[in-house]
Structure formats: structure tokens, C-alpha cells
């Protein structure tokens, strides 16, 4: 019995977690798409109390026209989602607009996390999921994550790949995507892209040169610029963070909603609790 307890103690110590980089204090805006939208927009279901909700909304449009294709259920974690229009052979797009630049910026670093599902069809054969960010200087950083690479939108840049899997075309299941951008320092502006909790690619400085000031707009599906990057995409559990998310954060968000990061005890915390219980059992056994 004592030998088994010692083995258990060693296992718990070896598997303890170092901790997450972010928690709910870093969550600036969050949509779970359960709240019915207005005719063209929906505001976050959760927002940092210190921030203003003024003009922070989601505008969904297909081929340039406003549309409300929201589903209040069926999302990745029991919430709702915003869907591609099955009747439309063209792209699907929605964007978050205006007012974020004070809180989502290059000084502190930032991250965007979400669950996506590629809805590529025979009439519209663009692979992957595209993203477009517009910054305070009106420069844009547009790119498209495919199954094995990142296609850049209208400018030069390079990415270092890990060999991890990317976006599945016609995916039946939700996939997590985390776009994590470093703040000030040697790697300022460098983006790490995580797919399904695994590091997929890291950007080069050429990509970073497009990113100046705060984020004023963010789109999933393209359209803000570089239209050839347009894709048909379902999306749910969209969150904006005021810090660079870590690999451990990205792994957690693969299977959990954004409003659970830092709320569910991390492995190290649980391990310490079990460790204390085992030590108490050993003490009682010896006495």
C-alpha cells in the first residue's frame, strides 16, 4: 500500500501544471450566440465591466447584404452559432466592428479564440477558413488557414509550420482556432496560430509589419480586404482577449468555452489537493 502511495505521489508531482497565461480578467469580449440578435447586429453576452459596449457588435452579411443567420443552439459548447448560408453559393462572412482599439492592441498583445466549421461546397471551392483584421492605421492582415498551410491575402509574408493538422474542409465537427499575438518585446506582433489545441504555425516579421495600432475590425470569412480569401464558415464561441494566450490556454479552449478559462481548476491545483490527501493518509497510517 505504501509503495502504491509513493508511486502516486511521484505521478502527481510529475504531472503538475505550470498554470495558464490568461483568466477571466483577460477576457474582454465574448459571444456565445445564445442571445437573439437585432435585425443586423448582436452585442457580446459578456463584456469586461470596465469596457464600453458602445458600437461593439457583430454584423453578418452575405454578398454585401445584411442577414441574420443565427442559431441559438447547436454551437460547440451548447450555445448558439452563426452559420454560412446554405442557399448561397458565395462566401459567408461576418465582422466585429469598431471601438476595440483601446483594449485590443499591440502594446499588451491580444488573442482571438473561436470554434469554426468549414462549410465548403461544390459551388464554392475555397478551402479553409479566412480571417481579416483591420488596425488603427487601416492596414489589414488577412490570411486563410487551410488543411496544411496559411494563404496570405495580397501581400508578402511567411510562416513556420509545425506539421500539425489544420482546417478540415466540409468538417462535420467544430474545430478550435486561437490567434495569439505577442505584445511588446523581442517577438512583438508575432502571431501563433493554434488549431484544435495544437500549434499550427508562427508568423514572420513580414506579417507583423501589417499590424499597427489597435484592432478596429475583425472578420471571419474575408470580405474586409482581399476578396479572393473569402470562405464559407460557421463560427461559435468567439472571444477577444487582452493578452497573448499560451499553448496551454489553446489546449484548454479546444474542449471548453472561453468563459471557463481560469474558472475550472487547472491540473496543478487538482493535483495539489490530491497530494495533500495522500500525505494525510500516509501520516495517519504511520501514527
UniProtKB/TrEMBL annotation:
It comes from the Bacteria. Gene3D superfamilies: 2.60.120.200. The keyword Nucleotide-binding does not apply. SUPFAM superfamilies: Concanavalin A-like lectins/glucanases (SSF49899). Residues 1-21 form the signal peptide. InterPro entries: ConA-like_dom_sf. Keywords: Lectin, Signal. One of its GO terms (molecular function) is carbohydrate binding. This is Concanavalin a-like lectin/glucanase domain. It comes from Akkermansia glycaniphila.
Amino acid at each position: 500500500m505504501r509503495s502504491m502511495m509513493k508511486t502516486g505521489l511521484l505521478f502527481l508531482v510529475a504531472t503538475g501544471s505550470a498554470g495558464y497565461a490568461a483568466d477571466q480578467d483577460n477576457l474582454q469580449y465574448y459571444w456565445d450566440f445564445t442571445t437573439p440578435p437585432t435585425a443586423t447586429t448582436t452585442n457580446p453576452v459578456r463584456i469586461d465591466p470596465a469596457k464600453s459596449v458602445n458600437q461593439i457588435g457583430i454584423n453578418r452579411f452575405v454578398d454585401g447584404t445584411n442577414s441574420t443567420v443565427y442559431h441559438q443552439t447547436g454551437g460547440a459548447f451548447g450555445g448558439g452559432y452563426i452559420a454560412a448560408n446554405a442557399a448561397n453559393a458565395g462566401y459567408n462572412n461576418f465582422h466585429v466592428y469598431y471601438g476595440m482599439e483601446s483594449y485590443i492592441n499591440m502594446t499588451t498583445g491580444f488573442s482571438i479564440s473561436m470554434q469554426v466549421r468549414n462549410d465548403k461546397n461544390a459551388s464554392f471551392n475555397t478551402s479553409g477558413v479566412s480571417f481579416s483584421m483591420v488596425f488603427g492605421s487601416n492596414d489589414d492582415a488577412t490570411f486563410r488557414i487551410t488543411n496544411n498551410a496559411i494563404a496570405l491575402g495580397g501581400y508578402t509574408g511567411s510562416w513556420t509550420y509545425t506539421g500539425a493538422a489544420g482546417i478540415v474542409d466540409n468538417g462535420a465537427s467544430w474545430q478550435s482556432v486561437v490567434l495569439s499575438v505577442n505584445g511588446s518585446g523581442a517577438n512583438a506582433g508575432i502571431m501563433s496560430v493554434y488549431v484544435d489545441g495544437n500549434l499550427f504555425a508562427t508568423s514572420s516579421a513580414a506579417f507583423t509589419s501589417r499590424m499597427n495600432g489597435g484592432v478596429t475590425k475583425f472578420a471571419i470569412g474575408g470580405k474586409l480586404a482581399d476578396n479572393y480569401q473569402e470562405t464559407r464558415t460557421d463560427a461559435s464561441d468567439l472571444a477577444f482577449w487582452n493578452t497573448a494566450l499560451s499553448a496551454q490556454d489553446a489546449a484548454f479552449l479546444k474542449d471548453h468555452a472561453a468563459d471557463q478559462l481560469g474558472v475550472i481548476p487547472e491540473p496543478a491545483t487538482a493535483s495539489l489537493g490530491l497530494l495533500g490527501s495522500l500525505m494525510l493518509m500516509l501520516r495517519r497510517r504511520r501514527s
